[in-house]
Design goal:
This protein has 429 residues and is of the alpha/beta class. It contains 16 helices and eight strands. The chain is 53% helix and 9% strand. It is globular and about 85 Å long.
């Protein structure tokens, strides 16, 4: 006679123990490699300034220049923004007065070139950053871009990095919020070498482990498609030992490497779309954040040139945001008004619908839309990013969602539960 099966807690527990044992290594690897969001604010842009122009007042100087440009062409930007101008332009003006640059990158690479006294410029820039930190006028996020680890520039890049970091520490500056940008990465081994180099500097100077972090510029075809046919950028992330904080797309180097004529190099070109999609998939769940590239169409000159430059950047920033790239590069103070106008417009346009859907999801009630938990996390992330950027006030968000800002952050940026072996040798990653 067939036995009639009955549910058994003992049987379920035994099967669960077997599954736990068999999946322990996979669970550990998943939690280690894909821990979830890094947490904390992500800047909406990165400003690259040559090292020899990075005095202690570089951020206030950029803010003053951006405000002058906005004041001179305010009506023009209002026309481009349209009916939202009365709401957005005061937010832009306030941002430029309060925090004009969110992320500053001191550049010793392409924007700097080859100079006779790079040692001196690296040291002077480090001392300037330390002074700005002490005076409370530095950008909230900052770092240095050195030359690549390719053979022709390897020694120069390492030397400048060592000189800069040593001078920063000697001047009393903090390296904790500093990142190093590694450009033109062509192999996973270059990432491993940088990891070991940073670890050795920490040992040499008595810094806590993983104080020194870096971001990878994805601007070579080898990073996107390696010789074995794999996306090397994914392997680069996992070779970083938890030190990689971001992937930054390099518009012009990558387009040129793909053979695109100069007139058609753009963040809108199909080769850019492909590279960014690979970056997006590679970074998902790792805590590594994404940044789009820049446009070299500057809004300077006569009114027609300013209009064209601002219209171009308004479109490109909005396009990047809609595609999940919440950060980009700015190359000139005149780009800041359009950067913030596009960013604030993106969040203000979607704020009402997002907060209403979150309120329904969190507190019930009539549901014209039934959202999945993953969608709720995306809604919360949108709202939190809007608050952090300055597009939305905390009180209007918490009132609309009937939820505290802390709860929204927890919903927006979950971390994967499970073991995460932070003491394992970095070479394993």
């Amino acid at each position: 006679m067939p036995v009639s099966p009955r549910p058994s807690d003992e049987l379920s527990d035994r099967l669960t123990r077997v599954a736990d044992q068999r999946l322990a290594d996979a669970d550990r690897e998943l939690a280690d490699r894909f821990p979830g969001d890094a947490g904390g604010r992500q800047p909406v842009h990165t400003v690259y300034v040559p090292a020899d122009r990075c005095g202690p007042d570089v951020v206030p100087r950029w803010g003053s220049a951006a405000r002058r440009h906005l004041d001179e062409h305010r009506g023009l930007l209002a026309d481009l923004v349209g009916k939202e101008a009365d709401e957005l332009l005061p937010l832009v003006a306030d941002k430029l007065a309060r925090e004009p640059v969110e992320d500053l990158r001191i550049d010793l690479e392409d924007g700097y070139g080859h100079r006779p006294d790079e040692d001196g410029d690296a040291v002077a820039a480090a001392r300037a950053l330390a002074a700005a930190q002490a005076d409370g006028i530095s950008a909230p996020f900052h770092g240095i871009r050195v030359k690549s680890l390719e053979v022709p520039t390897r020694a120069r890049g390492i030397r400048s990095l060592v000189h800069f970091l040593a001078a920063l520490l000697e001047a009393g500056g903090s390296p904790e919020s500093l990142v190093t940008t590694l450009p033109k990465v062509t192999s996973v081994d270059q990432v491993r070498v940088l990891v070991d180099l940073l670890h050795e500097l920490e040992e040499e100077w008595g810094l806590p482990r993983r104080t020194l972090r870096f971001e990878i510029q994805v601007e070579t075809t080898q990073a996107v498609l390696g010789p074995d046919g794999t996306a090397l950028v994914a392997r680069m992330i996992h070779a970083s030992g938890g030190r990689c904080t971001g992937l930054h797309y390099g518009t012009y180097d990558y387009s040129a490497a793909c053979g695109i004529a100069a007139a058609y190099q753009s963040m809108e070109h199909p080769v850019a779309e492909h590279a960014r999609l690979v970056m997006q998939a590679a970074a998902a769940g790792t805590g590594v954040r994404l940044s789009d590239g820049s446009t070299n169409v500057l809004p300077v000159g006569d009114d027609d040139q300013v209009r064209y430059g601002w219209r171009t950047q308004l479109r490109l920033v909005r396009r990047s945001l809609e595609r999940g790239f919440y950060q980009g590069w700015d190359l000139h103070p005149a780009q800041l008004p359009s950067r913030y106008a596009a960013t604030f417009g993106f969040y203000r346009d979607g704020l009402s619908a997002a907060t209403a859907r979150l309120e329904r999801y969190l507190h019930g009630g009539g549901r014209a839309i039934v959202d999945e938990p993953a969608t709720a996390r995306a809604l919360a992330d949108f709202v939190v990013r809007g608050m952090e950027a300055g597009a939305a006030r905390e009180d209007e968000v918490t009132t609309a969602t009937r939820t505290s800002a802390e709860e929204l952050v927890r919903l927006a940026r979950p971390r994967r539960t499970g073991p995460r072996d932070l003491d394992a040798p970095e070479a394993r990653h």
